[in-house]
Amino acid sequence: MFTVRTLLEGKGPIVVLAALSVATIFGCPARWAPILPLALLAFTISFFRDPEAEVPVDPRLIVAPATGKIVEIRTVNEAHFIQGEATMVAVFLSVFDVHVQRAPIGGTIQFVQYNKGKFLDARNPNASLQNENRVVGIESADGFRVTVRQISGRIARRIVGWAGQGAPLAKGERFGMIRFGSRVELFLPPGTEIAAKVGDYARGGETIIARRT
Questions:
Q1: Is 94 a catalytic residue?
Q2: Cα–Cα distance between 50 and 179 in angstroms, integer?
Q3: Which of 17, 56, 99, 161 is the most buried (most CB within 10 A)?
Q4: What are the structural domains of the chain?
C-alpha cells in the first residue's frame, strides 16, 4: 500500500528515475538499457510504501515504532523525556524495510527535539549518540511516558516529522519517516515488561514490544 504523503516524500528521486526510464526506453536502441533505471525506479517506489498495520487494541500493549530488526535491548539513562533509567529497544531499518514511524502508545506528544549530528552507518554503535536525530516524547492520558528517537544513517539524510508537540496520537498512528537505511530507538520506563528480544523482526504499529504492568 502507498499513501500520498509518503510518495510526496519521494517525489524527487521518483520523478528523476521515471524521466530517465522513459528517456532510455525511447532514446536508446539497446533493449537491455532500460533495465537498470526501471529497476531503480521500482525499488525507490517500493521504499516509500506505507502498508496498514493491525494495531493491538489492548491499551497495556506497547507496539514497535518502526519496521525492522531488533538489534539491541539494554538499560540506559534517557535524559530527554523519561529523564532517568529506561529500557532501550533499538530497531535497525534496512533499505528494504518500511520507513514510516508509528506511535508505540496512544497519547499526546509532549516533547520534540531535533539534534544535528553525523551520518554514520546506522549499524555503527556510535550512531545512536553521534548521528543526526529527532527525539519525540509521548505521554498517555494516565501519565505513562515513552520516548522515540529517529536516527539518520549514512544514506538517510532526511528525518521527517508529521506530528509536532501537542499533537494527539492514537496507538499505531503514523508520526514520521526516515528516508533510507536508519535506526529507531524506543525508550520505556522501569517496570515495563519487555516482550521482544534481540533478533526479532518487528512491524511498526503491529508487533508487541512490551506490556505495561
A1: no
A2: 13
A3: 99
A4: 4-47 (no CATH), 61-211 (2.70.70.10)
3-state SS, 14-77, equals HHHHHHHHHHHHHHCCCCCCCHHHHHHHHHHHHHCCCCCCCCCCCCCEEECCCCEEEEEEEEEE
What's the pTM value of the predicted model, to 2 decimals?
A: 0.87
Given 21, 128, 152, 182, the catalytic residue:
182
What is the side-by-side order of every strand in the sheet holding 100-102? 100-102, 174-178, 159-161
In this structure, what are the phi and psi dihedrals at residue 98, rounded to the nearest 5 degrees? -70, 135
Question: Tens of pLDDT along 105-124?
Answer: 999 999 999 998 777 766 66
The answer to whether the beta carbons of residues 80 and 111 sit under 8 Å apart is: yes
117-122 long-range CB contacts below 8 Å, 24 or more apart? 117/152, 119/152, 119/153, 119/154, 119/156, 119/157, 120/153, 120/154, 121/153, 121/154, 121/181, 122/92, 122/93, 122/151, 122/152, 122/153, 122/154, 122/156, 122/181, 122/182, 122/183
Taken in order 156, 162, 165, 171, is the CA torsion positive or negative? negative
